[in-house]
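Agenda item 2: copper (II) ion complex prediction
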Amino acid sequence: MALSAHRISNANIYLDGADFFGKAEEIDLGSVKAVMSDFQGLGMIGLIELPDGFDKIEGKINPVLTASEGQVVQLTLINGEGAEHDIVFPDQDTKSPRVTGKGASTTIAFRATKSGDFTYFCSVPGHRLAGMEGQFIVTPRPSPQTVVEADISREPGDLPPPIGKRDPQTVRVDLLSVEVEGRLAEGTTFGYWTFNGKVPGPFIRVRVGDTVDIHLKNSADSAMIHSVDFHAATGPGGGAAALQVDPGGEKSMTWKALVPGLFVYHCATPMVAEHIANGMYGLILVEPEGGLPHVDHEFYVMQGEIYSDIVFGQHGSAEFSVDKLLNERPEYFVFNGSVGALTKLHPLEAKVGDTVRIFFGVGGPNYTSSFHVIGEIFDKVYNLGGMTTPPIEGIQTLSVPPGGAVITEFKLDVPGNYTLVDHALARMERGLLGVLHVEGSKNPEIYNGEVMPGMGH
Ligand code: CU
Ligand code: CU
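Presented output:
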């Protein structure tokens, strides 16, 4: 593949009199995205970062050009006068053809393989001495070791025990909004906004008829106002109308849980989609009178999208991209906040013969999940999280909208690895994957075959 055929970064250097002038040129991120997989294969991920210098060179004489180590730089030299010129990057072994005549141009592309402070100049005799010389700075690639990788992913087993039989009461719930840099994937961090430092926020459990006494604190070091909207609450904003909290502040209110079911809660401070996308969502279960039937394991899983400024797989410290959010073009899809949260970091564990219940919700903010567990059939499904109607039975895949949830139950008959997916399976290639690991003896009557290594099921 000819690397120079792709516009990774692009600058125009034009000539006026005997000086170089710089001009930024638009960078087509769309086309870059389209060739990403090829670049990954070549180990050239990280090229997509825009060179900071390029937007600052407009109209400058002998502009300072910058690039990141490993980046491909594409540059067009345009002759604005009659004389003959070229441009040479001696330390990068790059020299353009000579351009002669007004309006003539040439385009060169090269890879900035090593970091350092370099020069460029015109090699026509006398021109460099006359001033046709500039600086080319290549900044080092950040080493993966410098990345602090706080695990912001909530463990799927991190939820309170069932309530079961008791009378309605007032339940105090404390939430703390925290903005924290955390691990998004191997070698990549993201600036998350969270409830209680994890994604999703804490699993809240009450029973129908309870009064929730919610106290929302916003960390003093937050940059943003935060709030919380409970889909289980009845009244303005699901509470968010009364719970907009400044950094360092605290607000409280009470609301009554009138309807049993599994509900999403989320921050509802404008831009709401941004607060959700950055990690501010969780589930609250309002148990019916008497609670749910006993199961051996309960798990808490939520799906969300990450709109990072850097592309999927690129290492470094990612920031939120409002453009990608508004265009609904996430770079990542994640279970419990990060890539690998439910595979490498915290897989779900159970044994043959166990019954499991998954509380599954979608924070989103934009994409509906087609939730599926490869190799299993959901015995019981409380569709859309509702519990005032009987569960449906024998279901393969569940459609769960953003701001929606579902409760599934199934019994494990065969050992192996069961993969949690959104059956819109392209999202698996963007990080959306979980594993339920089941130990126990084989059950050839139900499944009789040699499981290939690594296939799990
Ligand atoms: Cu918020
Ligand atoms: Cu909502």
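Discussion summary: DSSP finds four helices and 31 strands in the chain.
Owner for follow-up: CH.
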